[in-house]
Amino acid sequence: MSALAFLQVDGGAAVARSPFATPAAAAGAAIDVVDGWEVPVGFGDLAEERRAVQETVGFADRSSLGKLELQGTLGELLDGAALGGTVKRDDAVWCPVSAGRAIALCEAGATASLRTRLEETWDGSVLDVSATFAALTIAGPLARETFARFCALDLRDSATPVGAFRPGSVARTPGMVLREADDRWLMLFGAAYAEYVWTVVADAAGRLGGRPVGLGALDA
Amino acid sequence: MKRLPRQPSERIDRSKPVTFSFDGKPVSGYEGDTIASALMAGGRQVLSRSFKYHRPRGELCGCGQCANSLVTVDGFPGVRACGEPIRAGMRVEHQNAWPSLDFDVMRATDRVGGPFTPVGFYYKTFIRPRRMWPVYEKVLRSAAGLGKLPKRQEDREWVTEYRRRHCDVLVIGGGVAGLSAALRAAEAGADVVLVDDDVEPGGRLLVEGERDHARDLARRVADAGVEILTRAPALGYFDGLVPVWQGSTLHQIRAARHVTATGAIEQPLIFPDNDLPGVMLSGGARRLSSLYGVAPGTSAVVAGVGDSAIADALALHEAGISVAAVADLRLASADNGVARGGPLGGRLEAAGIRYLQGMTVVRAAGKTGVTRVALARVSPDGVAVPGTVEDLDCDLLAVSGGWVPASSLLLQAGARARLDAVTGRFLAADLPAGVHSAGAVAGDGLREAAELSGTIAGATAAASLGFGSDADVADQRERLTELGGGATSSDASSAPGRAAAATLDAPPPAYATDGKRGGKSFVDLDEDVTVKDVEYAAAEGFDSMELSKRYTTTTMGPSQGRFSQLAAARVLSKVNGAPLEEIGLTTARPPWVTVPMGALAGRPFEAGKRSPVHRRHRELRATVKWAGDWRRAYDYGDPEGEAVAVQTTAGVIDVSTLGKLIVRGPDAGELLDRLYPNRISNLAPGRIRYGVLLSDAGRITDDGTIGRLDEDTFYVTTTSGGAAAVEQWFSWWMATWDLDVQLTDVTQGLAAINLAGPQARTMLSGLTDLDVSNEGFKYLDAKQAMVADIQCLLLRIGFVGEVGYEIHCAAPHGEKLWDALAGAGARPFGLEPQRVLRLQKLHVIIGQDTDSESTPYGAAMPWIVKLDKDQDFIGRWALEHRDGDAPLEGALVGFTVNGGPVPTEGAVVLDGGEPAGQVTSARRSPKLGKTIGLAWVPNSLAKDGTPLAISDAGQRIDATVTTVPFYDPEGEVLRS
Questions:
Q1: Is ipTM beyond 0.90?
Q2: What is the model's pTM?
């Protein structure tokens, strides 16, 4: 057994509970188990949730994403991605945080295999920090305006093009932002702040006509 | 005052009446009206009472910049009536007057209090007798101030949100210069934001007959992609960040380049009773008539120092207001746009307006509003030349003392105020890199010059960012110079042609007077500061601009010196006999525009951390309090019962808030050896050791446990509030020592639950296959195992003194682990009972029982310092060089109270009747049946059985020192 197995969410049979499960449930979410995680899967009206993503802004819990912290010589792993950029490879997004540190993001179900492969093939430190960071996707034409209410990062196209990764501050806490698509950003931050961040994002999005959405709405 | 016939540039919609109330009475206006324009159209001249003397005050600027029209709107005080649009149903009330605006008893301070309330009187009076101060304070507070906040907190809440905006170019000011700058920069490809404090951009174009051009220009700017924010004043300049207040939004704009096009501010003239309602700035009177179709008077006299006053007089006449005369201070015909055959002269003549060359106003008269003015020629020091005084009846005196560039934001950005020798105006020079100015603020106030300078500034700003080139604005630069512009360029003072081209105003005297007694000449209307006050202050030694400002409060009112700074400088110049450039100006501090405090506050959310088990604490109705930035369960309603349960059966406490670091790598042991005063690298895998972290000075900064998980991996815990600082501390030294170590803060990724008590082992054994016997799992062992189907790390440690297991697992499983442990029969206990239990063991809480001066020696932990270890460590030198055998810090000891109350934490320990230490922790122990605590005492008292005197808020408490734990002093329970 790895000396750090206790860090891993997938180390036992127990179902993991998303740090957003409580505030999402209070907002009317249906909570279901996906890839071993209890996550909010919808808020009762998929059409309305999709409309929010298409017309204003919707935010969805992505905390179940696998997140591996890599420390060491990153050159090969990052395939030339510079600080501020990312590379998509092997069903993961590789995000450099500093010259010697990066975060690899993958779907929850792929976390164990990616972690094992890295531990076996890469001469660096691999730490499963899936539980350390909560994650929200904020999507829609007003997503950037929503960010503007709680985040000072420059998320304009010129500064943060699609694929860019920005460590910084979100909602006055340390965090990171990945631009996943034109109108879609993934935000990572300390899991203990989840309830607070949910409140902040819900407030900001709500004032712009947005709302929480389930993962299904993001696929629209 | 009345509503004029429809005006070509008016912004009101006469087809849409709007009704609101003023002091409870209905008032009608039109959509587009301001509160002031609607009130004035209804005949009201007095809008407020002055700050100190409670003199009646009417509209001055007409554009939301002065303090003459402050009212309370829907309970919120300090709203400028001349800038606030009316809304149906809005409740407007006067402020600073009682019982009514038209009859204010505090006016007595003006009539009889003047001699007793000179400038600075509040520094000299209300001092003795000292015991009367609470009474004085109450009276002063009730008399002072500008409006009153609603009494109930819920009525005072202001909903504001922040909006961060990055852009390439921020243009501040939406006049012709700002619009031109924004257009040019946007057309070059820059991302541009333009902010303006009016309801629409256009600036003076809107007032001066070029509304269509202004709107066309604004449309082109919007079409070019510029984000235009209206009713959005810039509040200040903070190292490139410009906060912009727009209703319920505070924009925080960070731009790569700034173009300041904030225009110029028309100045009043100083003469006796220059504050009478009906005395207005001529530009303000024109604005009221042009934009709102309001006649601020029926018979006007205009007094000015340049062409703009004459243009305003003509505009008032054309709007339908009778203008009896125009007094123009200028004598020299070369400077005079009328006398030198310009179009203004002919138009005055055609309008039948008397033109009084070389004259100015030397007194206004009237009771609650101006009814008569005296005009005269004046000597250089402002006294009327005998035989030239002429009295004229009027109910509107429109004055213009020239224009001052609105350069405050530029000065806040780091520019320097420099007197332009050609125009006699203070301009902002030596602009910092990336900051540009355009239009009147740059000295380019004429319409064409403003447009040109805006275009140039926009092109330059954009080009410096790689958007287009500014090479093609060379022609505009040349033309601007021909027009006498470009005053802020480095060689402006000597630029040929500027003096010839500029339209010059006559510098007015510091103040003008007819030489008769009576009447107050106000330098600062906001603060009721008169010429006499400034002179009086100067005579007392406050004779520089900075000192005078602080003593007299000139420029410190709501209008931030817009209308008073130059006037005060002129008075000081006269008093000191020094030129104006020597007197200088002060920099208005942000906010440049009055803003409610609530607008700066943002949304009311506190960045609190919550444990993964927090939901369970809420369900158990825990008392939740802040502990650093965590929300923690202090107790579950019965702290004593919870403590007893831990010592009789078992309890669980959520300790997920502990800092948790993974330290890995070949040099991890060495790193920890260098950071901790005890040995870490010799720790066997699977074992734990307690450690304290020290500063370079040997003072305790944090503590926790270090567990070795394998050869290269350590698991370090810290105090709840210390994780971030410890990680930073480790990172700093890792970088300095260049060790092969990786460090990761996993605090928020792990839940941690402490199961403790006589039955803890039994309960745990039912949830895991791990051998939890004392032989299989010894005190200070660390083991991984499945607990309730959850992968966990178990640490056998015991902060509360009982057999204990600190169980760590991935945070998303924390709730289930808690449920399993509680389900096994362990009773939840909170922070409060934990503190009682650890006191029984004399376990120290860093930060509570220690301070920034505490060393391990003083804090009863000498055993942790291994001065004999090979490795140097942080703090070693300081500990080796302590101050002899009797260090000043004293000793941390336990104590028991010999009857009496529980001392307050912070209560004073006495030695020979003198303060000599303090209580750091004290609780009533239900198990021991007495009050126990920890206290810092002099070394001479740090012996078992020594009587201790504690003084707590005047009450003496007798206690006895103990240096060994109250409970299980040998640790047998803990290790069993």
A1: yes
A2: 0.91
